[in-house]
Each structure stands twice: as structure tokens, then as C-alpha cells.
Amino acid sequence: MRKPMPIDESYRFDEGLLISTTDLQGIITYANRKFCEVSGYHKNELKNKNHHIVRHPDMPKELFQKLWETIHSKREWAGLIKNLRKDGRYYWVYTHITPLFFNNRVYGYTAINRPASSHEIEEASLKYAQMLQQENIQKAI
Ligand SMILES: Cc1cc2nc3c(=O)[nH]c(=O)nc-3n(C[C@H](O)[C@H](O)[C@H](O)COP(=O)(O)O)c2cc1C
Predict the structure, then answer these.
(1) What angle, rounded to 10 degrees, do the helices at 118-140 and 61-72 form?
(2) Per-residue pLDDT tens for 94-111?
(3) Which atom of ligand 1 is nearest to the CA of 52?
């Protein structure tokens, strides 16, 4: 599936929770109705795709590296994520990712996303833009 072209327009998301579960690789095994509504994808388009399907190019790589390091060490990760809808618009979420255990072994992850506040979005936009700039400078050297 081709990635949509980002358009600099936000999609308003003020209430409800986006819930998804993934396997150990981040492949989506379940997405609730709100996730479909906000991301703009049909359930069938999300199932068996990497969560990367909603990755926005404004998000720094380092953030996802930290996210994976944290959940690989069986800890929870929480933070702000800017995501890309199917139609190219973006939406911000406050994400809480938790490892799922069975017999003491992690078999997947669950993500619960609530709407991000304007203050959180303002802070994260600034921070992520700086991180991305650093990454681009490193790439150029
Ligand atoms: C449970 C779970 C939820 C995730 N949610 C998101 C998300 O909302 N947006 C996102 O871009 N990546 C999310 N990721 C991380 C993606 O799997 C992926 O690592 C990220 O989009 C970076 O993609 P890339 O490594 O291909 O550049 C999630 C991962 C897990 C395990």
C-alpha cells in the first residue's frame, strides 16, 4: 500500500480512545472502531500491517528507537505521537504502550491512545522538530 502524501492539515480528535494490539514485530492484530475512524483506514487495511502504516515523516527516528528499546525490555512506554491519516492529514495522540504477557513471556503489545492536549502538542512539536533537524544534520555529514 502506498503511503499517502502528507498535507499540513490536522484532523480533530477530541474524545474516545484508539486501541490496537500488535505482535512482537509491531504488526497490527486488532484495531478498534475509533482507531479506524481517526486513522481513516478500514479494519481490513490495518490488520496484518505494521503500525508504521500511520507513521508521519515529522516523527524523529530516535523516538521510535527509544520506544522499541523500552518495550523490548518489558517496560511500558508513553509519549506523544504525530500520526498520518489515510487522507494525508495528521492527528496527535498520547500513546501508552504495554507489553502483553502469557506465562511470563511477552507475546505482543497493546497501545491505548487518547487525544493529546494543545499544550502537549505544542511542546512535542517543538521537541520533535529539533530532534528531526539533528537527525538530518547527522545524515548530511
Ligand atoms: C503497540 C504499538 C503501537 C505503535 N503505534 C505507533 C503509532 O501510533 N505511530 C507510529 O508511527 N508508530 C507506532 N508504532 C511503532 C511502529 O511499529 C514503527 O516502529 C514506527 O512507525 C517507525 O517505523 P519505521 O521503523 O519503519 O521507521 C507502534 C508500535 C507498537 C508496538
Answers:
(1) 100
(2) 999 999 999 999 999 999
(3) 21
